[in-house]
Structures are given as structure tokens and as C-alpha cells.
Design brief:
The chain is mainly beta. 8% of the residues lie in helices and 35% in strands. It contains five helices and 40 strands. The strands form twelve sheets. Strands 11, 13, 14, 19 and 20 form a five-stranded mixed beta sheet that branches. A four-stranded mixed beta sheet has the order 6-1-9-10, with no helix packed on it. A hairpin with a 2-residue loop joins strand 16 and strand 17. The N terminus is likely disordered.
Length: 598
């Protein structure tokens, strides 16, 4: 009886076991010719991050193809998880290195990843306590770097460093290898910790206030920057003229203006890159040269800035010293009249960072008397210049000028597949046109004696030059025609010149291309709007013209070869300040320039 009860107790288990054996014997998946499907959802990130500085390559990890493996059909051979990382079926290098972090689901049971990337075959161990970045170089090798995801100590700052992986491996014809130093646009040093960074080494991180910067990177010669060896920021091209290969100073290279986010962590990485060659002589060109240049890589992206904005203030009232305050605290030091301190070069007014929300701005004279006051509501990423000027009635007025730091214009029409689509107000995204290498300038009339001012390219409007290679240089009349005192355009408030360093059809001289597009002189005309339209109108000959090749160059001493000197990329405002009537003692109307980035 006891034995029978035991058999009955095990009967459900025996039935389940028999069922499982039957199912196993009767069913069989056909795996042949099917791509491997790996779970994509809820995949956590490993401590392995990869950067591609080499070009277009295929990637396999632990025998799982993540790309299309040179297939004619890009998706053939790809996996679900591979397509989630590389939607095009390929890992293509970009200006940011096209980074991806390996999912933990692709690691083997020992926490290892067997990578096959192009001709590279290597195993990487996932070190959770010490996350690392791996850089695929043009020679097919991997460089390893420590990663720092620790955010800045001050939340309004960003962190930045230099990693110098420059190389001679493929024959650096331009000899752009050695220690490097990072500077501002005018060549001034940023920090000794970002100076003289040797090949194969990395600098410490430093913190800077968030904002728009125009960094330049030079080789170092005896502790000083070598003015003939400025590195290009990828994908811009180093200077090499095949018609004159013995003369190739790296000078006058225009870097783009970049906005570095509050809380972000960045690396300026030097590596060897392929540079295309352009010339206008009859010499047969080689396919390209290899030389060191740099990328700006984002190590930690803090996401959308939801807190901070920036403001600066400028005093445009002759004979007055003004102290600007925001919510009772000083915005910089007391300011003399801008016409007295701004010379032929662009002036940089001090910026301060504020949190979003409503702020009260007050302008006081040297005796503490209130000249003007007003409220301004700031939103994240706002960039404002606060002007103080006297209107026609002689009353001091504050003007809040928003500055776009992105080189972006809004096109009223756009042309998908050659078809002109008018702006119907439903979707403006397709009409935003951005120029990464841009000389961008606003114009403002702060001379109450001139009812309407039109700013010109010498004696003509700011139009593209005939025969210009830059057909994307867009000019909008609202930005510079019939500007009333203190008036600000509601749309497309800037004139943008798209400056390429060295482009197809150029003579190899960076200034040669730009001279046919950027004005040499800026002048002011007295104009009239409709119905008595007069544009540009009559020349205001008492206002001296502004030399663009001086005002828009940060530092003449950076140019040891005059032929390489040309107006530089950046974000500017050209302002007409002073008086036409009752002028005297340095109060005469004049053109000045404010530069909004360092």
C-alpha cells in the first residue's frame, strides 16, 4: 500500500517529464539562413564605449553581427540589436566619432566582448569600476582612454580636456605632430592645464562657464604656440596646395562656434585624418593626404539645459558711466560709453549666467541715479545683450537684444526634390538652415538722430557676390535695411556668411574664397521705408566705414602671412552709436562691433 501511494505521488511529475521529452523530440527550429535575433528591449549599458575615427567599418561582437557585413542589402546579416545601434547597417565615422556603448546583453558569461571591427580582432573585458573609451584609429588600431562621467562641481559649468592621439604612422606630410595647446579665438591661453599636451598623453579636466566658444588648437614650439601650425577641426581641411607643395603654413583656419552645455563633459581629441586636396592648377592631385586634426567629442551629455541663460550689458550713452544690475546684483563692472572703449577690433562685453525666470534690470549712472529699468523673462539657453541708449526724446531706454549662437536662419521656402514648398505655417523644421562655419552678425541702430539706417557692403546691399561659390550665403533685408533706432527684427535677425576654410575650386589661399563673399567695408546710409522707399538711400559720410578685415579678426598677430588673414567665424553685432547732431568730445556717430563668443 505504501509503495502504491509513492507511485501515485510521482505520477504528475512523470507525466510532465514525458510531455517535455515529446515536445523536444517532435519540434525543431530551422536556424539555417536566418539572422540571429538578440533581445533589444531593457538592455543595460556596459562600461565599454567605442568611437570610430577611421571611416565606414563593419562590427561583430561575440559572433553576433551588428552591421550588414558588406552585404548589398544593408539589413542582410544584421541583427535586431545591431540595427538598434546602427540603423543604416554600417558604423560610419562622423565628426563626433559616432560613439556607441556596448549593451551588457552582448557580453559573454565572463564579461568579455570579442570584437571584430574591419581587420581588427580583439577581446575587451568589461571593467565596471573603471569605464573606458576605445578609439578606432585610421590605421585600424585601438587606443584606450579613461572615461570621466563626473559632472562639473558648479552646475552652470562644463568640463573639457585634451587627448593627443596624433600620429606619424601614415606619413604626416604637414608635420602636424607634437604637443598641442588650446586657446580662445584671439590666441590667448585658456588654462596651463590645457597647454603643451604631448603626443600619446591626456590633459587634466578643467571647468569653464557654459556657453559658445571658438577654440583654436595649435602645436607648441618651445612652450609657445606655433602660429604656422594650427590644427583644423574635423571635417574641415588642412591647407595643402598641390601646385606649391613646399609652402603650406597652417594659418587662418576658421573653427566653428560650439555651445558647450552646462553639466557636460567634453574631450578635444587629436588624431590622424584623411584630408581632401583642392587646387586650381593643372597638376594631377593625389587622392588626399593624412594629417593630424581634431574632433570635439561629448563624453557626457547632460541633456537639455532647463535652467540657465546668459546676459551681458553695453552702455551706448555718450558721456556716461553706467552700472547695470540684475535683481540688485551687479552685471559686471561700471561701464564707460562703448564708443570710447571699442576701437577697430570687436569688443567683448562680460557675460554672466542666470537662472530662468523673471529678472529686474536697472541701469544707474556714476552717481547712483536710475537711468532706466525694466523686467526681462529668461528661458533656458537665452543669450541677451542689454543695450542702454538715448531715444529721440533724450530718454534712456533699455533694449533687450536676443542673440542666436547657432548660425541658423529660417527659410521662407525650401526645395525638397526641386519642388518649391511655400511656408504655410504648419511645420517650420524643414526650413531651418544651419551654417556650422559661419560669420554671423546682427545690426542695430542706436543713433536716435538717424530715423532709418541701412547697413551696406561699401556702396551696395549685402548681397552674394557675382560668381560666388557660396550660393548658400543667404541675406535677409530685415536684418540690415531700414533699421529704426532700437528696433529689432522679429525673424532672421542676422546676416550669415558661410565660410569654408578650403573648398573645391579655391586657390588654396583661405582668404581668396572669402574675399568674394564677405564685405570689405561696412557703411551706413540714411534710408526710407515705403511708401517713400529709398534703399539704400544717401550715404552718411560723417560716419567712418568699418573695415571688416580688421574688426572681424580677433588678433592680427596670429597671422604671420598677411595673405592668410581674413574675417573670422563668430557671432557678432554691428551697432551704430553716438550722435549726428550736437556731436563732439568723442560722441560722434560711429560703427562698433561686439563679439558674443570667446
Amino acid at each position: 500500500m505504501r509503495q502504491k501511494k509513492t507511485i501515485l505521488a510521482y505520477r504528475p511529475f512523470l507525466f510532465l517529464l514525458a510531455t517535455m521529452l515529446c515536445l523536444s523530440a517532435c519540434t525543431k527550429d530551422k536556424l539555417d539562413n536566418k539572422p540571429i535575433h538578440t533581445e533589444v528591449g531593457n538592455t543595460s549599458a556596459s562600461a565599454i564605449r567605442m568611437f570610430n575615427l577611421a571611416g565606414s567599418v563593419d562590427v561583430t561582437v561575440n559572433n553576433i553581427p551588428l552591421t550588414a557585413l558588406e552585404s548589398k542589402n544593408q539589413n542582410q546579416g544584421s541583427t535586431d540589436i545591431g540595427l538598434s545601434i546602427f540603423p543604416t547597417g554600417k558604423w560610419v565615422s562622423g565628426e563626433d566619432g559616432a560613439p556607441f556603448t556596448l549593451p551588457n546583453s552582448l557580453l559573454d558569461k565572463n564579461g568579455k566582448a570579442h570584437f571584430i571591427i574591419g581587420s581588427l580582432d580583439t577581446i575587451i573585458v568589461n571593467d565596471v569600476e573603471h569605464p573606458k573609451d576605445y578609439y578606432l584609429m585610421t590605421n585600424g588600431h585601438l587606443h584606450v582612454g579613461e572615461r570621466n562621467n563626473v559632472q562639473p562641481a558648479a552646475s552652470q559649468n562644463f568640463k573639457i580636456r585634451i587627448v593627443n592621439f596624433g600620429s606619424k604612422a601614415l606619413g604626416d606630410q604637414l608635420q602636424l605632430n607634437g604637443p598641442v595647446t588650446l586657446t580662445y579665438a584671439d590666441g590667448s591661453l585658456i588654462d596651463q592645464r590645457l597647454s603643451n599636451i604631448a603626443l600619446g598623453s591626456s590633459s587634466d579636466y578643467i571647468e569653464l562657464p557654459y556657453g559658445a566658444y571658438q577654440f583654436k588648437l595649435f602645436l607648441t614650439n618651445g612652450g609657445s604656440i606655433d602660429l604656422t601650425k594650427q590644427l583644423a577641426d574635423f571635417p574641415s581641411t588642412a591647407y595643402y596646395d598641390a601646385c606649391n607643395p613646399s609652402f603650406h603654413p597652417q594659418q587662418g583656419i576658421n573653427p566653428r562656434v560650439r555651445t558647450f552645455k552646462p553639466g557636460g563633459v567634453y574631450t578635444i581629441l587629436v588624431s590622424e585624418n584623411r584630408h581632401n586636396l583642392f587646387t586650381d592648377c593643372d597638376k594631377v592631385l593625389p587622392p588626399g593626404i593624412y594629417a593630424n586634426s581634431y574632433r570635439v567629442l561629448t563624453e557626457f551629455n547632460p541633456g537639455v539645459n532647463s535652467t540657465f541663460a546668459r546676459m551681458q550689458a553695453v552702455n551706448a550713452i555718450p558721456g556716461k558711466n553706467i552700472l547695470f544690475t540684475v535683481d540688485g546684483k551687479a552685471l559686471g563692472a561700471q561701464q564707460p560709453y562703448i564708443g570710447q572703449i571699442a576701437g577697430v577690433k570687436a569688443h567683448q562685453a562680460q557675460y554672466q549666467i542666470y537662472v530662468q525666470g523673471k529678472h529686474h534690470i536697472v541701469a544707474r549712472d556714476e552717481n547712483g541715479g536710475v537711468m532706466a529699468e525694466a523686467d526681462l523673462t529668461l528661458y533656458p539657453y537665452d543669450n541677451y545683450t542689454i543695450w542702454l541708449y538715448n531715444n529721440k526724446a533724450g530718454k534712456p531706454v533699455l533694449v533687450f537684444q536676443p542673440n542666436d549662437m547657432t548660425g541658423t536662419l529660417y527659410a521662407s521656402t525650401y526645395h525638397p526634390n526641386g519642388q518649391i514648398i511655400p511656408d504655410d505655417g504648419t511645420n517650420g523644421a524643414a526650413r531651418l538652415v544651419q551654417y556650422p562655419y559661419a560669420l554671423q552678425s546682427r545690426f542695430i541702430n542706436l543713433c536716435a538722430d538717424l530715423p532709418y539706417a541701412t547697413f551696406t557692403n561699401d556702396h551696395q546691399l549685402l548681397l552674394p557676390a557675382i560668381g560666388s561659390n557660396f550660393q548658400d550665403s543667404i541675406r535677409y533685408f530685415s536684418a540690415y535695411v531700414n533699421m529704426a533706432p532700437g528696433a529689432l527684427p522679429l525673424r532672421n535677425a542676422s546676416v550669415i556668411y558661410s565660410l569654408a576654410n578650403y573648398s573645391p575650386g579655391s586657390t588654396g589661399n583661405p582668404a581668396a574664397n572669402e574675399k568674394v563673399n564677405v564685405p570689405k567695408l561696412l557703411r551706413v546710409f540714411r534710408s526710407k521705408p515705403a511708401p517713400e522707399l529709398e534703399v539704400p538711400g544717401s550715404l552718411e559720410s560723417s560716419i567712418a566705414p568699418l573695415d571688416v578685415y580688421e574688426a572681424f579678426v580677433a588678433n592680427n598677430s596670429l597671422y604671420t602671412f598677411p595673405q592668410f588673414k581674413s574675417p573670422e567665424t563668430g557671432v557678432y553685432t554691428v551697432a551704430l552709436v553716438g550722435r549726428l547732431s550736437n556731436a563732439g568730445n568723442g560722441n560722434q556717430a560711429k560703427l562698433i562691433v561686439i563679439k558674443h563668443n570667446k
